Amino acid sequence: MEDYWLCYLIIFWFVLLIVQKVVINLYFRPRRIQNHFLKQGIRGPKYNFLLGNLKEIADLQLPSSQHFSLSHDIVPRVFSFYHHWKNIYGATFVVWFGATVRVSISDPTLIRDMLLVKSDNFEKIETPPSAKKLEGDGLPNLRGEKWAHHRKILTQIFYSQNLKLMIPMMGKSMKDMLNKWSSKMCKDGKVEIEVSKWFLSLSEEVVTHTVFGSSYEDGKAIFELQAQQLAYATNAFHQLFIPAFRFLPTKKNIISWKLDRDVRSSLMKLIEHRKKSLEFDESELEGPKDMLEVIIKASSNNNSNSPAIKVDDIVEECKTMFLAGKYTTSNLLTWTTILLAMNPHWQQLARDEVFNVCGARDTPSKDDIAKLKIVGMILNESLRLYPPLAAILRRAKIDTKLGNLNLPKGTELLIPTIGIHHDAELWGDDVNEFNPGRFERGVAQAAKSPIAFMPFGLGARHCIGQNLAIIQAKLAIAMMLMRFSFQLAPTYQHAPTIHIFLCPQYGAPIIFKKL
Ligand code: HEM
């Protein structure tokens, strides 16, 4: 009998402990944090038990079916909660994602302090395991020594000397794509193309070359499997949001798991194969270095001071690059084409520049690319108005002071890139107009603060693929301008939306006419 009582007591004690933890974490802690910020004059929507402001955020979202005129004033649509609460509470405010507090910061001085001056006090936020499995546990998710080691190795691929060697490959992929468009032309010399799908394939091809180099064909087959796996997994994720859903043996999950195993085992085989061929071939090849080569060599030359690079690490880096390189650059190309289709004046200015610089060459050379100033300004304006990544997140590792703001350890910070890019106080009254001319005197002079333009992030964790993306985009836009004039198709609906990346919800149908 006494044993029973003891059992009951232990169970009761456990339940009490859990209830106490829940009440502290979901009720008292948020109230304490809210008061902490209130005392500093930082306000925000009130915390609601368990959900925080998630319901309000969902309610503020415009219905996805709603599209609007060809306006670039897109923040109220794509970042509704930020637009709404910034108008009420000012540039710095507190918002609750469940019981997690996020401080939204759009003051350039605070952002500079956070990402440049005191960057060691902040860390990237863990990606949930389900997302990590899809996007790969590579560079963007690494921290500390392991991150620094991988970043140092992978940077070699993105040196401008190496990228320049990739230009002929990129030019060929672009030419093949444009030839296919030409072959679809009607008798009147016009064709309608939904460009976003084509730019995805183009960027996939470029990133596959960048990662696999001479093993392109094997790599292509693997990335095709990864693309299929992504499609199945995102589909399942969208259907039902239950944390454990990904573990249930549904038909789609079973297919997704098998595809994941296939991607992994094919990559392992390819890595082993490349390892062997690199052992026999000591010669320095003429062509560009690819990621597989660079990382395999680094894994075999590991010195004892650096964390060892295992085969699993190489697999994860390959998976990550696929996602990081494919969707971002294709978004930039899609939005730039839409913007040039809307603005025939800038389209013609850019075309004149391309013909002046490239003369009779049908593919710009590396020197030509460096001279395409107007095309560069247009790409910057496109990245300003439609940044593929709309926001950056960080977490304070230790108690930190930013300006007058005291941030307790664990506070998450949200930098709304898209909001800063559309801030009239930084960019002037024409903030929502397409005006590449603002970048004429360089990025640093385009706005009141150089921090106002940050499509590739800032500081140590800024985008490693920035130069690759810009070279690819300049080349693609120049070659398109050389062959066609273009305008929006009547079916185009201007509906920017965030699906991880900022994309046109109904695609980008464009009418191309042979010059
Ligand atoms: C228009 C094209 C692109 C845009 C706008 C873009 C944007 C960004 C941004 C904003 C970050 C920083 C995120 C943060 O601070 O949390 C980032 C990081 C990163 N990007 Fe890009 N990116 C682009 C193209 C690429 C390409 C082509 C690649 C590779 C092939 C790439 C690979 C990466 C990687 C690996 C990181 C993580 C770097 C680290 O944590 O050290 N990106 N990118």
Automatic annotation (TrEMBL):
Against SUPFAM superfamilies, the record matches this protein to: Cytochrome P450
Q: Which domain of life is it from?
A: Eukaryota
Task: Offer a single GO CC term for the protein.
Answer: membrane
A matching Pfam family: p450
GO terms assigned for molecular function = heme binding; iron ion binding; monooxygenase activity; oxidoreductase activity, acting on paired donors, with incorporation or reduction of molecular oxygen
The coenzyme or cofactor needed here is: heme
Name of the protein this chain belongs to: Cytochrome P450
Gene name as annotated: LOC101267535
